[in-house]
Predict the 3D structure of the following.
Amino acid sequence: MIAQRRSLRRRTDSLLHCSVRKGWSLFACVLIGLVLHAGMPSYRCAVHAEPHSPRGEAEAEADVHDTPAHDCSTEQLADDQLDAGQVAVNQESEQQQPQEEAAAEEDPEAVAARIAAADVRLGADYHKHFNVPSYLSAYYKSAEGSVEEGNLLDFFLRQYYRFFDEYADLFSLPNAPKDPDTGVSTLPNTWLDFGSGPSLWHLVAARSRFDHITLCDYAQPNVNYLRRWKSAPPVSHTAETAPSQETREHDWESFFASAILRHEPELFTVSETSDGQDPTELAHREARRRLQHLRTKAVREVLHCDVHQPKPLGPEWDRNRRFELVTSNLCVEAACRTRTEYRRALKNLASLVQNGGTLVLAAVAGESFYRVGEHRFHCLEIDEALVRDALEDVGFQRVHVERLPAPSSGATSDFEELLFVVASPLWIA
């Protein structure tokens, strides 16, 4: 849709500039522009009426000043009307093809047959077949991630550290609120992590700057795990007192410590290490502090969610309650069967972002499955163009993507590329 709008805008600009060269009047040029744009949905209509960002104001000024005024005759009006008619024909032709493709893609029988042939789990299968301990032990033993998935976790953690450090600069003013225990500035933003799964991996990169975090997931085993983690005191397990697979808490302290050692070398000052303090022990101490902050203070609630619903956090959710930051990792593409469904899911997710807020996606491109234990779970094969187009169509004015071509081994998943997406700001009516 965005591509169609841009294409038509280019044709409109071409006609206007052509009319200038032929010496037409400003009145005729403006009239033609209004006729051509009358039937075309405007991207800016999807955002707030007033430009709330410098970029929006600059674009508005450019739209006004880029078309010069000239004196001209009206002898070519018939030719221009023919050109305008041709534009309308071309526009109708361009719109017809995507509609035909969408209809073919949405054929329920074809989609069901493809998924059945792939022998993958999807949707409600998560409630029964998603094994939390197997998932965490396979993918989140340390910040290095799994051998089979190569650079996935390292890449995403580096991007999150960079994002949160730059995000925190916005709130580094002298009067910014500070954590009473550490003196570190905390971000006043509300943060929703959508589709958290049973994992906390990226929360380490926030460095305890947030005091109001909401976690949520669709799969009931993941919701149960996170609620148990939040309510239960931390336990250090030994070989003699190892719990069962069903009740064992994942060793997030070791994961956080490995991330701190790998991505936060500035924490280990020369004075501390020269005094004989082991960097590993220092990292574990900081990991315990951050986990305690998350468990007892920052994470306020764990909710059930469904990205396919217009109210993704449940029918009783207040639509006026939105979040200044929404993150979602390896989630939306795993929940959708088709590209049209993916677009709709991102629209639902964006409804949770506050005006002027930010959406962050850590996504895998070109992946058709990932494995948890003995089960393979479905993943929609997306690409950067789809993600960009869907987010722009929703109303995000800026979409920044960091890419890493990094094919997995194919043993536990088959992604081709990693995408870290930051979309902001969102202005919707």
User: Anything to note?
Assistant: Residues 77-105 form the longest helix (29 residues). Strands lie at 191-194, 213-217, 299-304, 323-329, 353-365, 369-372, 375-378, 396-405, 417-426. The chain has a mean pLDDT of 75.
